[in-house]
Amino acid sequence: MVCLGNICRSPIAEGILRQKLLDQNIEGVSTDSAGTSSYHIGEAPDARMRQTAKSNGVNIDDLKARQFVAQDYDEFDLIYAMDSSNYNNMIALARNEEDKSKVKLILNEVNPGKNQAVPDPYYGGDEGFQHVFDLLDVATDVIIDKYVNG
Ligand code: 4NP
Hints:
Rossmann fold; mainly alpha; binds 4-nitrophenyl phosphate; two-stranded parallel ribbon; single chain; 43% helix; 4 strands; 6 helices; 7% strand
């Protein structure tokens, strides 16, 4: 799960997916998140995102921001961008076509071909964080159905 800062959208995407895998007793799937920027390396998720997570039954307090690197293409099969800027930044780091094929816009799993963004909640009000949670709650259901149960 990849966004810009790795403190708002991608950690909650990882946290929701991780919680669902646990709740559904699904083993053998590893989850992670990263940011395309270096701005927040080493930081915990944004306090507003951690609070929204908790009020929805998900705990992301243990996560720490890191930057996406080309070696991530060796570690992961599916790499989800939150918006087209994150997508383009990762494609620019791809070493070959196989790397590029791993990168997807996450909301295209819900609305194929629409190229919708998970909006960056960082500079907005608290309601933006719940909206991000709701979008990613739906997207992670689709991902589990498609790639784990499918
Ligand atoms: P994220 O949100 O990409 O969802 O983690 C942001 C966090 C920080 C900044 C931008 C977006 N920033 O510019 O510091």
